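Everyone, describe these structure tokens:
***
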Amino acid sequence: MKPVGIMGTAILSLLLGASVPGFAQQDQPNRKEDRDRKDENRGRPDRPQPSRGVEQRPAEQDSRQVQREQERQRDFRREQQMQQQQRAAQERQQELSREQRQRTEQQQRQMEQNRQRAQQERQQELDRQRSEQQRLSDQHRQELNREERERAEQQQRQIQQNQQRSQYERQQEINRRQEEEQRHSVQRQQELSRQEQQRAQQRQLQIESNQQQAQRERALQMQQQRFSRERQAQLIQQQQLRVAQYRRNLEEQQRRLQWQTEQLQRQRRIAQYRCEREYLEHLRQQEFRIRQARYDYYSDPYFYSPPIYRYYRGGSYYEVNQYGADLLRQAVNYGYREGYRAGAADREDGWNFNYRASYAYQDANYGYDGYWEDQGAYNYYFREGFRRGYEDGYYSRYQYGSYYNGEYSVLGAVLGQILNFVSLR
């Protein structure tokens, strides 16, 4: 009903405003005719008045002037009334327009408030849904962490049992004349084993984390940059052949290292003997982990992640993804650590500088479990790190690497020069 009343009022005001100018236009010709008639009367000669004297003419002229003045005043009052009516009509029209604008603005404000209120309600509902999803995700993550801790504890107990067995075997092999030095070696070996356990746990946690991430990613749409199923199956088949070959060679490598450590013992190179005995223990633990591992190739993101780096080695270019690149970085750092220890041992024994004679340099497999990258690539970058670590250890310096918190590592600039990765993106 309100819009109908408003429209009626507006139409009435328009009619009133239109009628006022019309009335003014009609009145203006009438006034013009009166003035013309008066002008004609003024232009005519005065009629002679019979039997009136000359003294009556000034009185008649004064009377006509009074009439003309009265007419002008009436005209002026009529014009003022017309103007007042026009102003009143305009004011009424402006007031109606102002009220209409106010009602329109109020309706717009009400609509905007309703829209904002609806938007806030939708946002609150979305926030509630996200909060519920986050809570479920946290519960699932906590359950996974608990399972990971249980597996890590079980693995640690198994590793501790293996360590105890290894220590007993070493104690049987050590001769009485080297009993004191062997105790020192055992203590150092325990520390290294503990560090190795920590790295193994970290690697296992990383693998499990990668597998979980892969399972979540498979639930989404496959990205266009991922490898095809045929390419993934081809990589897995190559990986299985590589692991089988590596496991066959691992036992032969340990026999060769056992023979070389006996040669060092006969040469009375006690420091280098301890160093290579520890390297042998590393290989045994590594073999045990490889044989006990149960690997899920299709859950490992390495086999469907596209390459992101290109590098040059041995006259050829190779491409590698993020996981392969991390493995090659590990090879350089592990090589530097073993090289530093071997160089320091030769310096302590008073032996000549010769990093190629070290079995760790010849083997170059420590830290490699047969997965992800080719063994030749891992051996190459392990030896690059070993050579630089041997120089630093032999000359008791840190030109290519650093020692922090019980760990040796290659400097970032040196690592970049060795690998020389070029981004493909």
The first helix runs from residue 2 to 43. The chain has a mean pLDDT of 77.
